[in-house]
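Hi R.,

Here's the chain you asked about this morning:
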Amino acid sequence: MGVAERSMGLGLRALNSLAGTDAVDRLGLREPAQRLVSRSARGSLKAAGSARRTFSAVAKLGGPRRPGEARSRGEFDLTPTDEQLLLRDAFRDFGRDELRPRAQDADAACAAPRALLDQAAGLGLTTLGVPEALGGVVSERSAVTTVLVAEALAHGDMGLAAAILAPAGVATALGLWGDADQQATYLPPFVSDDVPTAALAMLEPRPLFDPVALQTRARRRAGGGFVLDGVKALVPSAVDAELLLVAASLEGRGPALFLVEAGEPGVTAEPEPAMGVRAAATGRLVLAGVRLPERALLAGADPAVYLECVRRARLAWCALAVGCGQAVLDHVTVYVNERRAFGEPISHRQAVAFAVADMAVELEGMRLLTWRAAALADQGRPFDHATALARRSCATRGMAIGNQGVQLLGGHGYVKEYPQERWFRDLRACGVMEGGLLV
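And here is the predicted structure, written out as tokens:
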């Protein structure tokens, strides 16, 4: 069996099982599930590697299409819907079966296998943030759904999850804030069989980075359009990216978002491996006199849109931290029950049992804070305070969970034979990364 055939067979397992359940018909989800399976089948056969593409509008839109606000249940209830649980379980199976077995090699190579990225693209992740009228699979804002999917994938591996989710973030941004021309030009590939490699480039290579005090500059040029200059750091899949959503300070306006095609003159990228999430193939993006047309500016440089983008990016990293933290807890729980010392499992030691219990309590707090912020975003309500709480909790407690995971395994936690040292490195990303992803 060839690599492509094996990739296709294994990659369809989770979503085929999802589409074959009676619950899909009971919930009226047959059509969305079949669309996801169909995209998975076609995407699995795509050849490895992507040539630089040219984006062009395939049709004229009378106006931009937006996903609707999520329906409020009228009470404080963060319980996922049956549809969301089905998707979460399907992607968790994919993370377990496909991501985790490849995680160690991908971390060492500082890159995700091309076949795996193609297989993941075929699962339809980029359609979760695209309005249904433009080929997406949801009719409402889907930050909660994306958070659940991100958490499920990160349970398999956080670095690979970041690489897989980066294109979906750009598609979500276009769905939320793109005008009619931008949506007509850039969204069709994200709902096609050949999803482009894309990412949000926000972080810059300097200490104490502030996302609203950018050193990447955009200036207007005579005759219309813009010129961008600056450097971005730790951009997922930067070297292979075909489309980038770049944060830059527009003269006279402040922080803004620009759509930059990687083939534009003056755009270069080089690998920039970090301590963690190495499988995301993070790279440094250099913008040297990059000329952009007027249509490259997203949302007219609306400051409210930019701040919302920052918050949604932070929630994406929170979701990854929750998923990775759950992986740590699950692994540690099994380990302390099986590891014996002085004739009994080490979990019988009170200090060990209390440490594992503390990890579980902190993890549940991280999860609920992240879900709450995402739910507020979906309902069109202010979520800046909720996002700040989630970010703070996931950055500090996520790091503590990773550290405790290494500690409880002792010497085994410090070697690459066990995944705890990789998870410890990955969890640090939540406190330092900006951009890259979006929910």
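One quick note: The chain has 14 helices and eleven strands.

Cheers,
M.
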